[in-house]
Amino acid sequence: MLAVIALGGNAFTREGARVGSPEEQWERVRLAAGDVADMIEEGFDVVVTHGNGPQAGLLAERVGDYLSLDMIDAATEGWMGYLIVNALTNEFLRRGIRRNPVIVISRSIVNKNDPAFQNPTKYIGPIYDKETADKISRERGWVFRWDARGGYRRVVPSPEPMGVMELDLIRLLIREGYVPIAVGGGGIPIISNGEIQGIDAVIDKDLASQVLANAINADYLLILTDVDYVYINYKKPNQSRLVEVAVNELERHYNEGQFPLGSMGPKVLAAIRFIKNGGRAAYVGPLGRAKDIIRGRIGTKVIPRD
């Protein structure tokens, strides 16, 4: 059985989507390593993906005058990939798992005419109060939107991923028993104008993970983040969690606008697309609980139609 485990960028950060100290980052990534090792011990082959929203936002603030967003995407693939590969190596050694993790710097193909370039929705960076967000917006021309976590975050274009350039390599690594860490931060966005060229955007890692998962015929997609379940009517008096839901029901909730575009929306859409393109089950649940998620103790499970 083959599973893609998508680790949320926010799952590696402190409250407020802020990147912590190196020690805090190592502490968080060890939870993820435990999840991956648990899945391997359960008999799965695993591909790991990860988000980069907080990390990309931090780099954009500090070095945005020198690096475009595609370069920042590449930098976060190395940064977070290094954390993950070291944590996995140590966890595998501790458990006696004879697997080697490997980072695949990945490029995701997008359409240069994607309407997302005119309508930024992808959250990156930390959460600000309105006064600070307005000040940064005036100074740097950045666009901010309200985040359901409470505050304002920068939003950037997030075009639809259409394919992964390194797909054949990832397939080869799976066959040879490696644990690839791929499409970090959704992959580096590229377009083709007769030659390959990066473009200023950040691809949603959940949608890129779904594209990859279906392309490699994965059985399961696990989206691990900082929430216990997918909810409808979130933060309303009639809030209700979804434990096991058929893809057609989940799609109805999605089309009703139940899930914010910049946060839970892409996770739900990725789960829907994965199932509709042949996946056996998709899960959304908390980092550090992968084994409990696949056993139905926590998290939301998405299944094919009733």
From TrEMBL:
Keywords: Kinase, Transferase. GO terms for biological process: L-arginine deiminase pathway. Signal peptide: none annotated. Residues 1-284 form the Aspartate/glutamate/uridylate kinase domain. GO terms for molecular function: carbamate kinase activity. One of its GO terms (cellular component) is cytosol. InterPro entries: AceGlu_kinase-like_sf, Asp/Glu/Uridylate_kinase, Carb_kinase. NCBIfam families: PRK12352.1 (NF009007). Belongs to the carbamate kinase family. This is Carbamate kinase. The lineage of its organism: Archaea, Thermoproteota, Thermoprotei, Thermoproteales, Thermoproteaceae.
